[in-house]
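Reproducibility note. Readers wishing to regenerate the assembly model reported in the main text can use the exact inputs given here. Chain order matters: entities are listed in the order in which they were concatenated for prediction.
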Amino acid sequence: MKKFSLLVLVLSLVAATSCKYGSQTPFDKNNSVQSRIETIKILTDADTGITESDWATWGDEFSFLILTDIHIGSLRSNSDDLPLQDFYDFLENLDSLGNKKPKFCFFLGDDIDYGDEKLIPEYEDFKSKIEAKGLKIFNVVGNHDLYQNGYDIWCKNNFPGTSFYKYAVNGVSFYCLDSGSGSFGSKQSKILKTQMEADPNLKLVFTHYPLYTNMFAVSLDDPTERNLMINLFNRNNVIGYFNGHIHRKEETDCGLFIDYSVPSFRYRQSWTIITVNKANRTVSETVYKGSK
Amino acid sequence: MKKKSFYFIVLILFAVNTIFAQEEGSKKVQNDKVNVEFIQGFGYNFLQNAKHTDVDVYTQCNVDFKKANLSCGINQCDSRIDLTLRGLYLPFEFNNAKHKLGFNALYHLYVFPDEFFEHDLEAGGYYKYNILPFLQFRTCMSYYVKISTYVTEAPCLINRSLSLDLILDWQINDSFNLFGGMSTNTYFDYPVLFAPTFFANVKYDLNDHLFIGTEVDVKFIDIVTTVLNMNQFSVQVYGGYKL
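Running the prediction on these inputs yields the following structure tokens for the assembly.
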């Protein structure tokens, strides 16, 4: 009887926890990437607020900041685990980074732990500290952002209000892809292929899932999709593929580009500066860690 | 035109299989230790993914020994080809063969022309439990290695992962067999954990030699960490011949 009670207790706890992650909304249409993607949004300087003249002054080398897997409101640990003070101190001293001073910022998904609007004020407060330093935040959607029918909330609260978009400027194209459901889906893959093949620029790709990890699971599960992406990127001038999801730092040589898995802000207390040199086609990565 | 030729070849193969089966049939009657069956099937993908973009056409051959099973199969979808070889050996029996335990080994080759090749090597344990004379539970847990090679500059990538099958098999009567369950890897599809396929299969024996069947497959991507994302929905129909 005791064993049975314990089993019921454990199952109830699992059910209660998983409800937060959206087990009660298994058939929402936005669960599928096929439903979320209709077309690619092409951003302009007016959308980003970054002008051609900004790019001209930055020259061939520019840096940007990446934060991923912030998990505001995480059910796994309390918010004290976010290295907020260390990060805010870092923001105060951006000028000391010299030519590595970031010009803009990318959030690579899992901004909030489960798609609940109650977590948004804390998230907005965090974002405002970054934006106050003049860093425009570009976003990609993560699997946690989609829990509890969270896609619409994510779109409402994150620039540019869609999960599949492109920004091309000064010979560089930034592609942000939706892999929040663990897959790119055939529709997005097809649009991406058409876009990339018509685009001679140097390319950087941002999304939530890694193409490859040496862990047992948690990369893109569909190897056909992954392999086609690797070939597409190798054929179309991609030099970096940036992602989060696995919470730890990993780099995979994919031929003519590197698959960079960036460590989590919450679970690795880390944030990353990426420096790209257009002329040399090089990407360098500097990881900063909180003091905890 | 290519597709028409392929279907024609498949039909010829099926006809040859059938003739061969008829000739060999008399041998089987003399030796009931070996059962051989040929299956020819077609799968229509209502919800397509990167691999299954068209009709799947497959041929499979199973050879059943008393304690072992060998099988091989080939699947074509568009210009892509899968080839699978599988061996199963169940040497351990307990409780009047109510429980059977053994090993499973498999090789799978996937050719995607002008893009990549995949080689999957799988080895693990296999367990059968005859719950009732007409009801059987089967499970297989394996370790597998996926080796992907590319036609572009990408180096070879190696994935190490696990696979799990959970299958319940119900022999409804002498002719009808119903089985279904969950498999992280299916016969021609080897995703990285955890993209399980849930399936239900009905098989009907027309007579001692001929059978037909249908299977419904639903595959979800990364079912552990994402909200439910159905990646493939297919219906297969197949026919076969037992020697």
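We highlight two features of this model. The radius of gyration of chain A is 19 Å. The interface with chain B takes residues 22, 25-28, 31-33, 143, 146-147, 180-183, 186, 189, 212, 214, 216-225, 227-228, 230-231, 234-235, 252-256 of chain A (CB under 8 Å).
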